[in-house]
Structure formats: structure tokens, C-alpha cells
Amino acid sequence: HLNDTYWPAPGELALRGPHARNYGIHPAAPEAGRMDLTELPGYEFGASGGLVSTPKDLNAFWDALFGGRLLPDWALRQMTLDTTAVGGRDVYPAGSRYGYGIASIPLSCGGVYWGHGGDLPGNSVGGGRATAGRGTVTVYTTTWAAEGASLRHLQGAVDAALCAKP
Questions:
Q1: Contact at 8 Å (CB) between 24 and 37?
Q2: What is the value of pTM for the model shown?
Q3: Contact 45, 27 (CB under 8 A)
Q4: 3-class secondary-structure state, position 123
Q5: Which terminus of the chain has a smaller tally of CB atoms within 10 A, N or C?
Q6: Number of domains comprising the chain
Q7: Structural domain boundaries enclosing 137
């Protein structure tokens, strides 16, 4: 039931339905500076970022995955128990672990959230499903935030949303 999630067809540049505009450095024309990158050919990115979705659909995906409606219990256990320490490397904060397709990232209020972020020129996404019934969140930026202070700000927004008192 991910009604606003789709793979763009070859040649499809416009986004279906209302979406935010994305701004960043065009990979083929970095000398042009920051520009609107909303209509990059997403189909060219394939599984590394070509899927178009909305925060609502991404939250529904995380709820279905961890709610047992997407995969059998044994598969989710495998994804979350057979993990490798990755904290402090690449985009992962200290204490992070990577399993099969998802990472656990520690929360400032205790516990972790399981998720998978992503970045393309012009946008970054972070989020997932927290342990201890804290909920699900997707945080999206309309600019690339895959390093430094921008990445910490994105990760902080996920943490703040999942650690907020109801």
C-alpha cells in the first residue's frame, strides 16, 4: 500500500504528484554551483537512489517491516542480529551496527533505531523504526547532507523526533 512510491520509467524526469524541490551541486556540472536538481533522471540511479517515495510511505514501510507484515520473523531476526560494528565510519555515529540492509543507530534517550538512509545530489533521507515503542520517523532534506555538520544535523533531527516525549 505504498501508493506514492514508484520507480521512474526510463526518460521520466518529472515527479508524479506533489513533492519538495531538491537543491544541490549537479554531478555533471559542478561549476554551475547550487541548482534545482529535482528532475535528475532517477531511473539512472537504480537501487542506489532511484526509488521515489514520500515520508508517509517510508514510515509505512518501516512499520510493516518491523510489524511482521513484510517478512517472516526469521528474516527480520537475521537482519537485526547478524550485525557488524560500523560506528565512527562513513556516515555511522559511534555505537552503530550494520545488519542485512539496515543499521542500528543509538538514540540519545536510550535504545536504538533501525533504518537506512540515503543520499543523492540534492537530497538526503534518514530515519527508521525505534525500539521500545518509540515509533517511526522519516526525516528528509532538500539539500545533500551526507557529511560533516549537515549529516550530524540530519541525524540529530531523527534522534530528536524519536526521543520526544509524547
A1: yes
A2: 0.86
A3: no
A4: strand
A5: C
A6: 1
A7: 54-163
